[in-house]
């Protein structure tokens, strides 16, 4: 009897549910749009109840399309945007529905406070500096600002772990999300009393830690009635969306790097142990091993902002001609030489995590009367690449050689951005034939949990297919090397003005 796997990906802008057969062929899919609320400056939230309703609708939809029942579904896996702190009671009810997203910066003052307490000994436990994105910082914010929520919550779960809890009644977290709490000792893989003491949160409000591809439990009778799944369907722990995507985007063997440019963006390496550099972050992979990475919360969304705010005329021209908006903007930018005639874009529309601060703001620098729309478009594409190049340099300075970079996400679809990145990184860029993202990665892990595949690396080998290779153009190395140095100088010099600017924005908004 044929068995099926269902995978879910809770993204910032949509939820995706895919149904795969036991040969890992995509049989049916469903998608639901969702939005981010911004109730205050630098606050970004979504409703957890919406994730559950979209799951129940989408699971029923894909099973109906495939003409199967819940009895045919062997396993379910979920990945999601990371670090959100979902307060739940043991009965599955939500203490609070509006959940801080990874990009929510309201806890910036808390991470700044904890930074003052950081010692080398503490850093050697956490392998990370405190930032407002971390799950534990969000819990601390709730404890200090909404103590009734903290007290009423039996557990604080990440978004995908909330889904698993609703399905099984068991509270678990995987190592990829566990390291993102800022409460786990990277050497032991257990909650650290020292870090919990710094956060001031109770250990019993955190879930049990286990591997991403381990089974949490079976779907409960109540959840089976709501979703159409069977009580025989097992649920795996799953992983953060970024790491589930990395797994099927070339990062299943050590020494590789992956650039994911979507709404936000990350550039990651795959190493045996964390890179102990305070400018970057280290999280556990969904596989064994570590993923040091740098982040831009507003990567692709910066391009969308440019399209919708500064390039409205060009956007309408593209639509009148029946051309994709972004492809049309890239055609304009291609007419501008490398370096955009000295125009710089700093891509901090949503602040920064570790290289700077939550107070950082996006800006164009180097404007003059000779600049046209093409310069602004190209400078934006180059600015994102310069920011990622700074992280790549840290990997290699710490002894982790990177031979090539896999590029995935929406930013990987056009030739220009891929070529710019190849030239700035000075590495070949590999794009992939398939880009199903985290939903495919977590589905492979679910298939492994029930024995449909025997090896996680071989499973990834079967799906990671190269679409195109962009070789770096050495003629552009000189200008980009010089501009990267100025980019870093601008970033560092502006940190104090950014803080002053943020205070004024908060005061007079």
Keywords, please?
single chain, 509 residues, 7-stranded mixed beta sheet, 6-stranded mixed beta sheet, 19 helices, 20% strand
Would you mind describing this structure in some detail?
By secondary structure, this protein is of the alpha+beta class. The strands form seven sheets. The protein has a seven-stranded mixed sheet. Strands 3-2-1-5-14-13 form a six-stranded mixed sheet, with helices on both faces. It has a two-stranded antiparallel sheet with strand order 4-7. It is globular and about 65 Å long. The N and C termini lie far apart (61 Å). The mean pLDDT is 94.
Summary of the model, kept short:
With 509 residues, the protein is α+β, with helices and mostly antiparallel strands. The mean pLDDT is 94.
Strand line-up across the major sheet: 17-18-16-15-21-22-23
The overall average pLDDT, rounded, is 94
β-strand number: 23
Strand residues, percent:
15-25%
The backbone outline, from C-alpha atoms, is globular
Largest sheet: 7 strands, mixed
What is the gyration radius calculated from CA atoms?
22 Å
Uncertain runs are: none
Distance N terminus to C terminus? 61 Å
Q: What helical percentage do the residues reach?
A: 40-55%
What structural class is derived from the secondary structure elements?
Answer: alpha+beta
Structure annotation, total helices? 19
In terms of quaternary structure, what is this? single chain
């Amino acid at each position: 009897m044929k068995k099926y796997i269902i995978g879910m990906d809770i993204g910032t802008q949509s939820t995706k549910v895919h149904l795969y057969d036991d040969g890992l062929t995509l049989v049916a899919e469903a998608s639901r749009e969702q939005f981010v609320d911004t109730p205050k400056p630098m606050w970004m939230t979504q409703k957890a109840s919406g994730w559950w309703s979209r799951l129940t609708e989408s699971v029923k939809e894909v099973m109906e399309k495939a003409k199967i029942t819940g009895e045919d579904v062997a396993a379910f896996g979920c990945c999601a945007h990371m670090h959100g702190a979902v307060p739940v009671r043991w009965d599955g009810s939500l203490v609070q529905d509006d959940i801080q997203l990874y990009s929510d910066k309201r806890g910036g003052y808390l991470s700044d406070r904890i930074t003052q307490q950081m010692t080398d000994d503490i850093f050697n436990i956490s392998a990370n500096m405190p930032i407002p994105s971390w799950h534990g910082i969000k819990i601390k914010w709730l404890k200090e600002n909404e103590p009734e929520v903290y007290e009423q919550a039996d557990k604080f779960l990440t978004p995908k772990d909330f889904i698993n809890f609703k399905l099984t009644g068991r509270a678990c977290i995987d190592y990829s999300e566990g390291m993102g709490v800022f409460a786990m000792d990277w050497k032991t893989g257990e909650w650290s009393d020292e870090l919990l003491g710094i956060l001031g949160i109770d250990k019993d409000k955190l879930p049990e830690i286990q591997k991403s591809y381990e089974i949490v439990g079976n779907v409960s009778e109540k959840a089976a009635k709501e979703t159409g799944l069977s009580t025989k369907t097992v649920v795996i722990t799953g992983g953060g969306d970024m790491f589930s995507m990395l797994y099927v985007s070339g990062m299943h063997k050590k020494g590789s790097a992956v650039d994911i440019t979507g709404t936000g963006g990350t550039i990651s390496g795959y190493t045996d142990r964390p890179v102990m550099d305070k400018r970057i972050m280290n999280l556990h992979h969904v596989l064994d091993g570590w993923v040091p990475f740098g982040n831009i919360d507003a990567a692709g969304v910066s391009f969308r902002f440019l399209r919708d705010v500064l390039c409205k005329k060009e956007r309408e021209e593209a639509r009148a001609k029946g051309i994709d908006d972004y492809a049309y903007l890239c055609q304009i930018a291609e007419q501008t030489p490398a370096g955009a005639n000295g125009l710089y874009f700093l891509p901090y529309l949503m602040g920064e995590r570790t290289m700077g601060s939550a107070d950082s703001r996006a800006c164009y620098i180097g404007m003059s009367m000779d600049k046209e729309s093409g310069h602004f478009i190209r400078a934006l594409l180059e600015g994102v690449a310069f920011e990622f190049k700074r992280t790549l340099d840290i990997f290699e300075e710490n002894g982790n050689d990177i031979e090539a970079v896999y590029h995935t996400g929406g930013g990987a679809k056009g030739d220009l951005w891929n070529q710019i990145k190849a030239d700035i990184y000075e590495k070949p860029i590999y794009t992939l034939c398939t880009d199903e993202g985290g939903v495919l990665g977590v589905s492979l892990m679910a298939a492994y949990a029930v024995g449909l595949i025997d090896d996680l690396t071989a499973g990834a080998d079967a799906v990671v297919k190269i679409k195109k290779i962009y070789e770096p153009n050495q003629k552009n190395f000189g200008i980009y090397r010089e501009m990267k140095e100025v980019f870093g100088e601008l970033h560092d010099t502006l940190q104090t003005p950014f803080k002053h600017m943020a205070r004024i924005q908060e005061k007079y908004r």
